[in-house]
Amino acid sequence: MASGIPYTIVRPGGLVGGGFGTSTDSRAKGREAGKEVKVIVGAEGDVDGARDILRADVARIIASVLEERELAEGKTIECVAKPATGTKEETNVSDALGNISKDN
């Protein structure tokens, strides 16, 4: 952070679905924000092979990042979603932020 300006970079995978979890394209069909998929929040390049995410899930992650500014500062975060196994799997963004190292 050579400039001294605090930052957090959120890099979502391919954005699918309209606002509020509506399905507007084939990749979003049957998916609802925060349900039926496991949202993966990880360090750059560490997102378990998933490729896309609902726009509403990205908004939820950004809101969490704003609430956890101290944990998120100086980090690049990737977020994607993949099918959940069985029951709804909620991602604790605060825990994920704590496990991501600051950028060099």
UniProtKB/TrEMBL annotation:
Gene source species: Triparma retinervis
InterPro entries with a match to the protein in the record: NAD(P)-bd_dom_sf
Protein name: NAD(P)-binding domain-containing protein
Entry-linked SUPFAM superfamilies: NAD(P)-binding Rossmann-fold domains (SSF51735)
